[in-house]
Structure formats: C-alpha cells, structure tokens
C-alpha cells in the first residue's frame, strides 16, 4: 500500500506561554501542501522502517497504533528535514492512516488523530488533513469546513541551508501575554472565501523572531522571496523554510526558479483542501 505524506505550512503560529507539561500553548492555522513523501507499507511479522532520520516518527506511530503488529515501512523522502514543513510528522500521520487500513483496525480519523498526539505535536493536524485550526500543544484540532469546489492557493517554499531545532526555537520564544483568537479567525475566514491577499496579509509566526536571531539566513531568504515577487512571506513552523503566496502556478514556477538561482532549495506547491 502506498500513502502520500503531505508537508504543511503554518499560516499563523501564535505562542501563549509554557504549560504544566513543559510544552507551549499555541494556536495555529495549518494547511497541507502538495509536496509529499511517499510511504510504502507492507504487512510483515516484524516492524521495520528505512526512514533515514534518527528520530524515526514512523516507528513511533506504528507502535502507538498497535504495539504487537509488524509491518515493513519504506520512506521515500522529498520533504526536507529541520525545515518547519512537518516532514517527520507527515510521515507519522501517513503511517497511522495506512496501517489502520492495512491492519483493518477500523479507527476513525479522530481516533487516529488522538493516537497521533502521542507521536508529535503536529501529527494530529496532519492526520485530519485539509486546513486545520490547531490549539493546545497541537492536540486540539478542528478541520475548517471548505466549499466543495475548495479554493486552491499557490505558494512558493524556500529553504536556506540551515536546519532549525524545534526545541531550541521554542525555548527562545517570548510568549504572547494575551490569548486573542481574532487573528486565526480572520485567516480561517479568508481561506474559506478564497481570499489569497487576505491570507497573505495576515501571515504570522511567533517563532520567526527567535529563529532569525539564531539563523539570520532566514531573514535573507524572506527578503529574497519578496523581491522575487511572492506575496506576504513568513517562516513555517520552527523553520527554516519561508513561504509566500503567488497568483498562479506559472508565477510560482518563476519565483521558485529565481530562489533556486540564488542558492535556495525552493518549490512551487499548491494547498491541499480536500
Ligand atoms: O511535539 P514535538 O516532538 O514535535 O515537539 C518538539 C519540541 O518542540 C518539544 O520537545 C518542545 O520543546 C517544543 N514544543 C513546545 N510546544 C509545543 C510544541 C513543541 O514547546 N506546542
């Protein structure tokens, strides 16, 4: 069985203080995009994974779903690591969805999403898929209702040659003193009405300041991305990828090519609303 594991961008990411469990409380509007890893799953007596990273969330996800079952997990990576694009979490979400089917466990997306919270903060949102409002430490997720002809947005992702440590960036973040849902609500409405400029104007990430202080290359990437013609421009998750909106695939390919010419890893992608 093959499952596509879609990367995500955070349109907003607001951080509201440290909770009793050491995690930060947050509110984030998360959108999956067309860039994906390809996960191949096969029933097997023993659980194995060829995921190339030391912190293999695929194995963690499979064990959280059913500790006594085996499977062979093959991961074809396309999403860069340390990029804020949720690569490892997307793989884990795809493993939960795929093994639920392969092992005939009959769990709902909501149940899989709860299991995903044991694996990583971004996993519940990526299990639900589509645009999601994520709260708590990431475990409270709500799928945003979309029109059936769901608007597709084109984006350009650009990553400087630095990898960010999520834990370090959170540690350096100065949380907001007040929890105000207004920004996320405005962004959710703009997504639902297909208002690209409305979304681009409200892109926000509280982790961007600390990430830029550690890696000034991220600020350079944002300047280059806007100069190449992207609308908005913000870092995704804990970085180091930045992204901005473009009006069409054609324009996105030009902006991505301009970023590649400057030495960045860059891709034109569209949002997944389904
Ligand atoms: O949940 P995940 O393993 O992806 O989180 C990685 C690290 O990011 C955590 O160990 C924690 O330091 C930080 N984090 C946080 N608050 C969140 C999510 C992540 O402090 N809501």
How would a textbook summarize the main sheet? 7 strands, mixed
Portion of residues within helices: 25-40%
- Ligand inventory: cytidine-5'-monophosphate
- Residue-averaged pLDDT, rounded? 95
> Regions with pLDDT < 50 over 5+ consecutive residues?
none
Q: How big a fraction of the residues is strand?
A: 25-35%
Structural class: alpha+beta
CA-atom Rg in angstroms: 18 Å
Rough outline: globular
- The helix tally amounts to 10
Give the helices and strands as they follow along the chain: EEEHEHHHEEEHHHEHHEEHE
How many DSSP-defined strands? Answer: 11
Task: Kindly report how far apart the N and C termini lie.
Answer: 21 Å
Explained architecture:
This protein is 34% helix and 28% strand. By secondary structure, it is of the alpha+beta class. The strands form 2 sheets. Strands 1, 2, 3, 4, 5, 6 and 8 form a 7-stranded mixed beta sheet that branches. Strands 9-10-7-11 form a 4-stranded antiparallel beta sheet. Helix 1 (57-65) links the parallel strand 3 (48-49) and strand 4. The longest helix has 16 residues, at 87-102. It starts with a strand and ends with a strand. The chain binds cytidine-5'-monophosphate (C5P). Cytidine-5'-monophosphate binds at residues 23-24, 26, 120-122, 137-138, 166-167, 170.
Task: From the structure above, extract its key features.
alpha+beta, 274 residues, 10 helices, seven-stranded mixed beta sheet, 28% strand, single chain, 11 strands, binds cytidine-5'-monophosphate, four-stranded antiparallel beta sheet
């Amino acid at each position: 069985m093959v499952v596509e594991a879609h990367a995500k961008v955070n349109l907003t990411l607001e951080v509201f203080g440290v909770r009793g469990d050491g995690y930060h409380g947050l509110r984030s509007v998360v959108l999956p995009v067309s860039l994906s890893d390809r996960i191949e799953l096969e029933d097997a007596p023993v659980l194995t994974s060829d995921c190339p990273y030391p912190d293999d969330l695929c194995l963690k996800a499979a064990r959280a779903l059913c500790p006594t079952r085996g499977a062979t997990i093959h991961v074809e990576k396309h999403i860069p690591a340390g990029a804020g694009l949720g690569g490892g979490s997307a793989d884990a979400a795809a493993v939960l969805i795929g093994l639920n089917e392969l092992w005939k466990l009959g769990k709902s997306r909501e149940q899989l999403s709860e299991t995903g919270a044991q694996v990583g903060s971004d996993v519940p949102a990526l299990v639900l898929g589509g645009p999601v409002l994520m709260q708590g430490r990431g475990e409270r997720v709500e799928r945003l209702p979309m029109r059936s002809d769901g608007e597709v947005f084109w984006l350009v992702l650009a990553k400087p040659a630095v990898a960010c440590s999520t834990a370090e960036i959170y540690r350096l973040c100065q949380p907001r003193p007040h929890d105000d849902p207004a920004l996320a609500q405005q962004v959710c409405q703009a997504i639902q009405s297909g208002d690209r400029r409305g979304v681009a104007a409200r892109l926000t990430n509280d982790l961007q300041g600390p990430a830029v202080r550690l890696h000034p290359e991220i600020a350079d990437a944002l300047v280059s991305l806007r100069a190449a013609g992207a609308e908005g421009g913000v870092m995704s998750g804990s970085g180091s990828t930045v992204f901005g909106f473009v009006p069409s695939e054609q324009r996105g390919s030009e902006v991505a090519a301009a970023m590649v010419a400057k030495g960045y890893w860059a891709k034109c992608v569209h949002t997944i609303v389904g």
